Structures are given as C-alpha cells and as structure tokens.
From TrEMBL:
It catalyses: (2R)-ethylmalonyl-CoA + H(+) = butanoyl-CoA + CO2; (S)-methylmalonyl-CoA + H(+) = propanoyl-CoA + CO2; (2S)-ethylmalonyl-CoA + H(+) = butanoyl-CoA + CO2. One of its GO terms (biological process) is fatty acid beta-oxidation. Keywords: Cytoplasm, Lyase, Signal. GO terms for molecular function: methyl/ethyl malonyl-CoA decarboxylase activity. Decarboxylates ethylmalonyl-CoA, a potentially toxic metabolite, to form butyryl-CoA, suggesting it might be involved in metabolite proofreading. Acts preferentially on (S)-ethylmalonyl-CoA but also has some activity on the (R)-isomer. Also has methylmalonyl-CoA decarboxylase activity at lower level. Residues 1-16 form the signal peptide. Its main location: cytoplasm. This is Ethylmalonyl-CoA decarboxylase. GO terms for cellular component: cytosol. Belongs to the enoyl-CoA hydratase/isomerase family. It is found in: Cytoplasm, Cytosol. Its EC number is 4.1.1.94. It is an enzyme of class 4 (lyase).
Length: 166
C-alpha cells in the first residue's frame, strides 16, 4: 500500500515469472509492463492461501471482479497477451534481454513522468484520492491539490507559452 501511495508514478517490469507475492507486488504499481515469455500468476490457492498484501483488492480494481475471481481461483498463468486483454498490463516490450527491456521500460514510462515534478506529483495524488476515497472526499482533495498548482511556476510558464489544446 505504501508503494501505491508514493507521490510518484511507478511501473512494474515483469521479466520472467511474477508468482504469488510477486504477482501481488505488480498490482501495487501504477503500471505493469511485461517482456516476451514473462508471466504473472496468483498461485496462492496452491499454497492454501489467499493474497494477504492487498493484491486481491487491487486486482479487482484493475481487472474487475469476474476476471480477478478467475485469476485467483484458477491460479491461471497470465502471459503478456492475456495480461493486455485483461488490462493487467499496459504493454509488452519488444526485448526480453534485461538491459534492453529496462531501457525500453524507462522510455515508455517517460511519457508519463516528463514535465514539472510538482504537477506529476499532483496528478498522482488526485488519482490516488479518486481510487481510495469516497467520491466527496476525493472531490475535496482534488480541489485542494488544484489550489497548490494553480498560479504555480508550471502553470505560469504554461500560460506564457499559451499552448493550444487539440
């Protein structure tokens, strides 16, 4: 849960097998990327367990209750193609080689992390509030966070540039 709430955008890069607790850990990240031949598998049932680190609750929010029930009760192997179909993964990288995959993941993530850190952190906070809080509390939080960036350096610089919205 602390990983979910970090004031930065996180990505799990699955290279090889993310089983049990490793599968749970992927659900704590904002995004999941997989390499060819990798898999995510919630094997808890085979150990006489259920996820205990929040993986089940987060999995339901990521893929929906029906798919989560199938993945948990079936201990199903989720390859990159199925993960994409379920919404469990954002993309399958082209390389399985460790260094190349890490570089590809960094490049992929940069589209979400480029820009003023204060704005990226504010985006993460409003999304976290929207995910975790009742809607009225999330709306108040969003309004409060908006107030921290309105008129701030990034906002003023954007106004000077006068970007056109397409």
């Amino acid at each position: 849960t602390l990983l979910c709430r970090l004031p930065l955008i996180s990505v799990a890069l699955v290279q090889g097998k993310a089983l049990g607790g490793g599968a749970e850990l992927t659900t704590a990240c904002d995004f999941r990327l997989m390499t060819p031949g990798s898999e995510i598998r919630f094997v808890h049932k085979h150990m006489g367990l259920v996820p205990g680190w929040g993986g089940a609750a987060r999995l339901v929010r990521i893929v929906g209750s029906g798919a989560a029930l199938r993945l948990l009760s079936g201990a199903a192997r989720v390859d990159p193609e199925r993960a994409l179909c379920l919404g469990l993964s954002e993309e399958t990288l082209s390389s399985s080689e460790e260094t190349a995959a890490l570089e590809e993941a960094r490049a992929w993530l940069s589209q979400y992390t480029e820009g003023p850190a204060s704005v990226i952190q504010a985006v993460k906070k409003v999304v976290t509030a929207g995910r975790e809080l009742p809607v009225e509390a999330a709306l108040r939080t969003e309004k409060d966070i908006f107030g921290t960036v309105w008129g701030g350096p990034a906002n003023l610089q954007a106004l000077v540039r006068r970007p056109k919205h397409k």
